[in-house]
Amino acid sequence: MLIKKEFKLIIPFxxxxxxxxxxxxPYFSKSNLKVQNIDVxxxxxxxxxxxxxxxxxxxxxxxxxxxxxxxxxxxxISKFEEIDSNFTYVLHNFTIHSTNCQNVLFKLNExxxxxxxxxxxxxxxxxxTEDLINKSAHVPGANDGASGSAVLIELAKVLYMRRENxxxxxxxxxxxxxxxxxxxxxxxxxxxxxWVEGSTNFVNNIDNFYDSQNEEFDAxxxxxxxxxxxxxxxxxxxxxxxxxDELFAIGRELGYTTxxxxxxxxxxxxxxxxxxxxxxxxxxxxxxxxxxxxxxxTTQDNINNIDSSSLEATGRxxxxxxxxxxFNTTTEIYKGNYPxxxxxxxxxxxxxxxxxxxxTIGGIVILIYNVIKQKxxxxxxxxxxxxxx
Length: 389
Hints:
The chain is an alpha/beta fold and 389 residues long. The protein contains 9 helices and 8 strands. The protein has helices spanning 2-24, 46-58, 67-83, 142-161, 197-204, 241-253, 274-278, 308-326, 346-388, and strands at 88-96, 99-108, 114-121, 169-175, 216-224, 235-236, 266-267, 283-287. The strands form 2 sheets. The chain has a 6-stranded mixed beta sheet with strand order 1-2-4-3-5-8, with helices on both faces. Helix 2 (46-58) packs across helix 4, helix 2 (46-58) crosses helix 8 and helix 3 runs parallel beside helix 4 (142-161). It is globular, with a radius of gyration of 27 Å.
């Protein structure tokens, strides 16, 4: 009877443990999210995207304040006008240390009042601070800048063809002035500049670009360094976890298991998605472990180290994401993580799991202690009963 009573005392511990575990464990590993992509043909072409990288490189180093940067912005406009001569675009001009900079925004499906932002930066670092030979040289920026921008152009082409079937407005947003900050060794791309200047300025003025009374943002997806060889995305910890998890699950379901590993490296990156996260827009950064990439911020970040298959894996995953969530003619039921507000970072998960483990161990210890105590008490009482008898 006493032992049964102690088991009853442990029940609250069991329920607390199971409750916490059932809520948080689904977010503990990316492999736990399973999706079934809707059946629709994907048209994103990695070879096309690679040609857009070549086009950007031919315009020179796209350093903020230079003519080459301006030429690249005009190139984006020309490519979108090839898709539709009336494609809506907005030029966002701002200055950093008296240097003229420019974000370029294109809008698809303006009749829809919910917005998904697809973004990438297009500026190139003014100094190759990681180069082993010439740290003062300019960075070509084939992967770091041009790859994400190229994917946006190709995505615009393929999504435009299905625009009437999409229940969302899509923004294609090209950021200037992302890549000029100080590295860990204190070396700047441009003296006095910080990282992600373009996206920070854009978000500071975001009310100028949409109707806040009638439009709202669903999500922001950032593409950064997505075209290199041996593409392997990380778990970027400052992203909204439910959104990033869904992109990983979609990519793996498409067969891109190397590019979207089940147990990716984790790290928090200061990148163009941060400003959007800070104002409450669910945002995800698709980015590699660039700190181990031999070409990052060097003169070797050129077209020779670009892989069309990496561009295609990235582009088709984002294309599939849009169809899964916004292709309004499908009869299939897709279950993702929309509306992507749940955000549990790795440190929180570690803390939560630690608490769950402590609760469980504590409950077990209490149970064992009380069972032993009651048995000991019962053993002392039993001889006394026999003497009395």
